[in-house]
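Write out the bound-state structure for S-adenosylmethionine.
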Amino acid sequence: MRKNNMTIQQLFEEGIKVLEEGNIQNPMLDTQLLLSYALDVDKVYIYTHRDRIIEGETVDNFLSLLNKRKTGYPLQYILGDQEFMGLNFKVGEGVLVPRPDTETLVEWIIEVVKSKEKFNKNTINILDIGTGSGAITLSLAYYLENARIYSVDISEKAHKIAKVNTKKLGLESRVTLLKGNLFEPIKELNKDIKFDIIVSNPPYIPSDDIDTLQKEVSKYEPRLALDGGADGLDFYRKIILGSPEYLKNKGVLGFEIGYNQGSDLKRLLEEIEGFNNIRIRKDLAGKERAVIANWEKSN
Ligand code: SAM
Ligand code: GLN
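---
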């Protein structure tokens, strides 16, 4: 249906109404962002030009974005990007939108590197399993100038988007993106490569819980990025078992975890001789969100 011209104020009100109908969490903020995106102006412009008349074609475009968002389609997939650790990441369908929660793990790893002389004096090798958009990989590369990062994802789409983000941030010289299953691409490199740090935000939602998540996640984000098997712990088991072969002595293994997985992770790590000093950190919401363990080879 072709809409007539409307003022910015009218579009704003329409936006809030439509998004409220869809039970979207932040109707006002989302409307601001979608409207400035559709008009190609910044947010302030919306407030300072409320009486400006917008022509029908742009009105139609905005209304179709609104109707998409109303179904729960992620805002970031429409806008095409998401901020993480102060950096801008391109995102899109098929790739997990980086979460603020994940900054807990990234900040912690940066702290660990900066606090250990052996990690900040030399070049260090880091492996990130499950690249996604590149949120963890690229922010570590950006903030740790002595780090060389290898990053693996099985998803073609994630691999492609991470490539774009690597280039955008100018980090190609220290980041190697690999496509494949867990440690396999590292094995295929056929070098005797070992890592100071292995890090991962793997899929960790129990399969049966995915449909209970908000529709932005359950309907539109890739299952491949979320599904951690029956108890959510499949990837932790595999990575914990696989990492001793690839960790340097006195290396570090770090994971993002679900809010209720702390004790499971502690147990899984304790089962393998060599992991010690296992500690858990909470996110800003006070929920357990990351675990780090040291690795010491037993001879
Ligand atoms: N690191 C990103 C972040 O924190 O925003 C993405 C994390 S997402 C929760 C998990 C990622 O693991 C997804 O990109 C998914 O494609 C990838 N993945 C799933 N199974 C995998 C496998 N067997 N091997 C490597 N990566 C895998
Ligand atoms: N934190 C994400 C969510 O709650 C899950 C990401 C993951 O499985 N690693 O949707």
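---
Residues 6-71 form one domain.
The first helix runs from residue 8 to 21.
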